[in-house]
């Protein structure tokens, strides 16, 4: 077996672990724990052995994560593993006991891949579990003790966890266990257990090996007398029935074997184990190939004995040591592939014997990297780097080698080792390092950089900068050179040196410095700049400005020159001098100054401007204005001139004089004052103003006029001007200014004027529409009178006209121009306003004979049905004009017994119980009764013969003229409308009845010109007569026009009389404060009928079809209204917020689709659609439907 070299430190470590082991054993009566076994029959042939196939030594590697790697157990509380066993599926079972202040234990099941650990202690309430075994059926057996250490008061027990169960069974059966240790079970189900003696209960000789026969409840003592045992620990049974017991005997451990059916125990322990430590036997196990394994605690050696072998047949499992303690393993077990497992005493986990990569520092200091990975046969490993920072003085880490002297295979960090067949050690490779030394080379201060790196041969190095602040008087640091005289290779800081040489030296490079001096060159004040910077040869310098404020009387500083007389090189402040090669002096350059003087040139008052600025040659000067207020009687100031007579160059104030070449004087210019116009007046109309004035006698170039907004009118050469297009009765102002030949302006005369007020328009004519009317008796028409005026405007003045009729018996007219047909004949309606008259010729003809309903029929007129069956009732109305119409959707239905039969608004009859009932059908005063008999289903029939009800007909079906009377109808048993919305159906019924009565007493309504052929004409007429909705001033209703959210809310409130007390607080909408429907919206939102968009209601947005249905669904009690399942579903509502409400409304007959099976929920609703859905909703209440039918 390959072993790691043991240093004196390792020897000391072994001694420490032995001492620590003795401490632990004093707590746990010098007894190890656990046992498991493969049981067998009397005649048993071992299974051919399977091995992992490794070719050399292996290493114990982590199978489960370590709990406290490298620490000593007992210092803090943690679960210490003791013994283990492996089932047929290679799951590992481990007993653990809490080591610390408390006494408790557990059993863990570790999956076959080592990734999952499950506590299977369940209800066992374990204190000190030790031995463990798993039988062929997956039943788990555990020995447990009441106290850690097996003191005299300890009580042991044996527990069993049946496979697949979560409750443990106590199989101790009253047997007294002083200290229950190892446990095993054979294939017949016989259970074996070790009862050892506690450390506090000598003498020896009381140890027992017990057997619980399968199916029995009494343990048998199979220990011979006298007992051969001194401290039995673990137990195992092989396939032939041989029983093996490990014994922690004094001096060296023993393994006793009891043959099948025998009574004698024979020591088959190995006669000698190398390694210098006693073979202290703890765990013992038998694998599925009948090999016996024993674990020696003192030296962590795993021993293997083949089937039926003797003391000389033991072999030592070849283990290559890693960084685990040599005294660390309690137990050992093998899986079905031949891999060995043990419980690690030090790291508190389960480890397995596999190939490993072990790193050796090979003379370096520090801890080598640790790879706890276990590698199966032919797996690949990635080589670690120097992750733990191993060092060796004077050397550089350069990878790993399979031999300490470097003659083996070399691996760089990150490389892979393929086809691993055994554990292997990689030794650190150390290469001699080169050094880099820096020398100041004559420095007078600072310190040289220090580079402590060891550089391997041919490795590159980065040159350091002057990090220590080296200085040399009168010189500047310029880098490094390989020679002191600078004739070697020069390196700048940050350069890279390739192929460094042994003990390399770099010398500082010093270059001589030059100075820069400044001279005032005749200055009379100030100080020269100071430049204390050293300038190495070839360096650049930035020229300073006149920082010391140098001055010279009568001169201006303009820069520097390399010569005092200015014949050298001139530099401006901030210029750069390149490549300085000597000390140099810069002399101030001075230029003579010029002056600027101003002359009043005959002024009679004021003072001239003063300019004290010095102007160097070529400098630009700005001309001053008349800052001293110069004046000259009879003249005005006109600027400056270079000559007193004005024949020189003229400059206006603010102009610039560029490139002065001498001192100069500017003379004031005095042009004569220009006179203004006189006698300025104006005349005005409502839209114009005319200005008049007298021009001055002096020569002039014209007149310009400036209005109050600054608009200028030029080129006026006369003495008058007119402004047109003005606003009546509005003030204006104008300034009249005289211009001379040089366009000089006079002071100007301001005229304040105002337009006159506009006259009132005069009526010039009237017109009326219609000019003539043909009416039938009882009809009405509205007259509209339009007036025209003198200002070409027009207006509707119908309310202002005085109306009269020449034949009131035929046609009357109201004060608002509404004409009513009274009797057959002709009449002339006259309207008078002022001096103008309009007339309307009216012809009245007899009213048409009304068409009335004469009879009502229902198909079928009786029905025999089975429970659950549905039938469609078809209601047909016959009229006095010999026509018929399908009025199924418009009829009312009431059943005498809703427990037997129900019918919805669409006329779909549904049998819900057994017996007879009658359905009362009514329409516009006519009624019929349908007898319904619901029978028990025929047992011979395969199903109900009921027919599928068609979709509810559209509510827009045209209806015939109104009847003359209507019979009473019984109200429904429950309210159709929600009480929280309308309080009760009776409130809605009373509201509709009241509106019908008012409509009957108010006379006829104005006919609309755009609904005669419309599908909803009758519905519209109903709501107009009930004063629920109105048309437009142009005589149209616009049935297909959109309806807004506010308009629909107002109609809902008028029809259903919504109660406002449904909520405790007002719902705030921030966009309705000034809206005409504010009160209605607040009322309905507070009642929960309306919802907004956050804090907005958007009252003027068109309401969608889905929003309409959602509002109706908050009013109708859908649980009461009968619904038909025969109505199809819409295909386009699944994503609508009101999908459920839309389908319920369709099932009750309130709505129909737009086309086919589509509802178009997001489409805008029209005025006609809104009224139709409200009418269909009202018709759900039979009493309201009867009232509405009777009012037509």
UniProtKB/TrEMBL annotation:
Residues 1003-1066, 1067-1126, 1127-1188 form the SLH domain. Residues 941-955 have a biased composition (Low complexity). It comes from the Bacteria. InterPro entries: Big_2 (IPR003343), Cell_Envelope_Struct_Comp (IPR051465), InlB-like_B-rpt (IPR013378), SLH_dom (IPR001119). It holds the Pfam family Big_2. Residues 937-974 are annotated as: Disordered. PANTHER family: OUTER MEMBRANE PROTEIN ALPHA-RELATED, S-LAYER PROTEIN _ PEPTIDOGLYCAN ENDO-BETA-N-ACETYLGLUCOSAMINIDASE. NCBIfam families: List_Bact_rpt. This is SLH domain-containing protein.
